[in-house]
Design goal:
Length: 249
């Protein structure tokens, strides 16, 4: 049982007790004539029984009066009880009406709370949906930024690789050109060295030829001179021999 039901039952019991107490308190006002009449009738009946001289009609009238007094007393009790029950019923009706009003108010409040909760839930759902959409958009934006950053990094890496490759190719080309130039220079140097060697050999050969020619010329001159000297000596010896022969003759 709920607390409200217990409270209603307690109020009904309380007002029922109050009605019964009120009925008990107002009972003398309703039951006094009947009670007194009943007692008078009883005493009258006792007098009638003791005095057998009183007539049957008087005894019947007294008995009827006593019954009517008893009926009035019973009617007073019934009226008091009815008043108490009516008060209790009125109280119960008031309590029931208040309970209905409270129930209606609680129901209306509950409906309002439900609507408020539904509105709050809808607002929260919309907010959650908006937040989810915002998060999704944020995530998509971040993903797009990451993709663009990745593409930029990839493009930068590719450009750097291309630059490095171009620099390597350029360096390789320069190295090849230098190698070729060095080869040409070496070849030219070799050719120049060969030419110099040739010229040197030619000069040396010419010098040797000239030296040989000079030697031969000198030897020829010496031979000519020796021949001349020998011829002159022979001529001088012949002249001297002739002279000596002439002198001897």
């Amino acid at each position: 049982m709920s607390m409200l039901t217990l409270q209603v039952l307690a109020l009904l019991l309380f007002f029922g007790l109050i009605g019964a107490l009120l009925g008990w308190l107002i009972r003398p006002f309703f039951c006094k004539p009947g009670t007194m009449g009943g007692r008078g009738n009883l005493s009258g009946s006792a007098g009638a029984n003791a005095n057998a001289k009183m007539g049957t009609g008087s005894a019947s009238a007294k008995t009827s009066y006593a019954k009517s007094g008893s009926a009035k007393g019973s009617g007073g009790k019934t009226a008091a009880a009815a008043a108490g029950v009516a008060a209790a019923a009125a109280t119960a009706a008031a309590v029931s009406s208040n309970k209905k009003k409270d129930d209606a108010a609680k129901k209306a409040a509950a409906e309002a709370d439900k609507k408020k909760l539904a509105a709050e839930a809808a607002r929260k759902a919309e907010k959650a949906k908006a937040d989810a959409a915002a998060e999704k958009a944020k995530a998509a934006k971040l993903a797009e930024e990451k993709r663009q950053a990745a593409e930029k990094a990839k493009a930068a890496k590719l450009a750097e690789e291309q630059r490095i490759a171009a620099e390597k190719a350029k360096a390789a080309k320069l190295a090849e050109e230098k190698r070729q130039a060095d080869a040409k220079a070496n070849q030219a140097a070799k050719a120049a060295a060969i030419e110099a060697d040739k010229k040197k050999l030619a000069a040396e050969a010419e010098a040797a030829r000239r030296a040989e020619a000079d030697r031969l010329a000198e030897e020829k001159a010496k031979a000519d001179q020796a021949a001349k000297d020998a011829k002159a000596k022979a001529e001088a010896d012949r002249v001297a021999a002739e002279k000596a022969k002439a002198d001897q003759a």
